[in-house]
Amino acid sequence: MNNLIYFKKDPILIELSSSIDKDSTKKMLAFKFFNGDQKLLENYLKENSYEPLKNSYDKDLIEPKSQLEFSF
Length: 72
Fold this sequence. Notes:
72 residues; 4 helices; elongated; mainly alpha
């Protein structure tokens, strides 16, 4: 993987930063690009100085309500 050069558009960083569920995305990216080795992915992210954004998606989720059913 070290011999690949991307100019301004790294597909790993773009896909990870655009995802909501970071943990499952990291597992998928490790499988896709690093043969399932998550330590290699973490080293790659450290080398490219990736800093995850602190999203508050967990707090903003709305509890689903039951659906109303009409009997005709």
